[in-house]
């Protein structure tokens, strides 16, 4: 027993063949529009463009995960150090709620 396969077809070719047997599937205007779009499309160029965009994206991901800029103003953002007008530093701790304090008001069930 040998297997027999149909001839390879693009989705556009399969649609046109199916539309020939069932006219309600594809309107004539849509068929012309698809044919025009198919002629204007270059599959090899589209594949090269997708490959180029994938390579660019992969390179950006690699660069981002390997090199990260250090935060130069970490002490300022944490509130641990601030300067007075005379240039001396004020050492403070960030304000946080105590463990037994609630930051949200309790609601009464009624």
User: Count of DSSP helices?
Assistant: 4
Helix content: 40-55%
Largest sheet: 2 strands, antiparallel
Tell me the number of strands.
2
Structural class: mainly alpha
The main sheet orders its strands as: 1-2
Strand content: 5-15%
Mean pLDDT: 79
The sequence of SSEs as H and E is HHHHEE
Backbone CA Rg? 33 Å
Shape: elongated
Poorly predicted ranges = none
Distance from N terminus to C terminus (CA atoms, Å) equals 79 Å
Word description of this protein:
With 110 residues, the protein is mostly helical. It has a domain at 11-63. 48% of the residues lie in helices and 5% in strands. A two-stranded antiparallel ribbon has the order 1-2. A hairpin with a 5-residue loop joins strand 1 (81-83) and strand 2. The model has no long low-confidence stretch (mean pLDDT 79).
Short description:
With 110 residues, this protein is mostly helical.
Please outline the helices and strands.
Elements lengths: L10 H11 L6 H13 L2 H24 L7 H5 L2 E3 L5 E3 L19
Antiparallel strand pairs: 1-2
Features:
4 helices, 2 strands, elongated
């Amino acid at each position: 027993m040998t297997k027999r396969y149909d001839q390879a077809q693009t989705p556009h070719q399969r649609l046109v063949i199916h539309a020939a047997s069932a006219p309600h599937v594809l309107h004539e205007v849509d068929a012309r529009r698809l044919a025009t779009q198919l002629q204007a499309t270059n599959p090899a160029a589209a594949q090269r463009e997708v490959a180029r965009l994938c390579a660019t994206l992969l390179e950006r991901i690699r660069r981002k995960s390997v090199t990260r800029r250090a935060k130069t103003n970490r002490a300022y953002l944490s509130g641990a150090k601030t300067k007075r007008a005379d240039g001396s530093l004020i050492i403070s701790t960030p304000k946080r709620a105590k463990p037994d304090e609630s930051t949200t008001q309790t609601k009464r069930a009624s």
